[in-house]
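Narrative of accomplishments. A recurring question from our advisory board has been how the design workflow behaves on a single, concrete structure rather than in aggregate. To address it, we present the structure tokens for one chain from the evaluation set, followed by the sequence designed for it. No filtering or post-editing was applied between the two.
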């Protein structure tokens, strides 16, 4: 997802990139993000049932709340930025894309610090 976020930022900034191609990258990001959300949610639900994890409850709940806010921002972005809108207001699209993809990149870095060790410990794999 991190590399795809970079590709989307680059495509948004490259004014010669066709809005339909930008939308295709957004659609690919949505597909991967939906899988990622499902895997993460399943892990967090399963993890909450593990008594050994109770010390992480506060951090995991905060993590989940931030994830919900990021998802809401993503859904609003995806709904708004259609090819015609991208072509009509490229400067705003560039800024919003850079901001949102940066938020995703920071989220991925946080996941690497917090969740990945738990995933490895439990033997689960599959988070992108």
């Amino acid at each position: 997802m991190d590399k795809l976020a970079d590709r989307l930022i680059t495509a948004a900034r490259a004014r010669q990139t066709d809005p339909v191609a930008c939308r295709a990258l957004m659609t690919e990001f949505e597909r991967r993000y939906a899988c990622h959300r499902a895997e993460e949610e399943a892990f967090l639900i399963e993890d909450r049932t593990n008594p050994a994890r109770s010390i992480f409850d506060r951090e995991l709940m905060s993590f989940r709340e931030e994830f919900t806010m990021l998802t809401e921002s993503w859904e609003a972005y995806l709904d708004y930025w259609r090819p015609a809108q991208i072509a009509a207001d490229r400067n705003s699209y560039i800024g919003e894309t850079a901001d949102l993809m940066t938020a995703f990149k920071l989220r991925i870095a946080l996941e690497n610090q917090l969740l990945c060790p738990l995933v490895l410990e439990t033997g689960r794999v599959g988070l992108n």
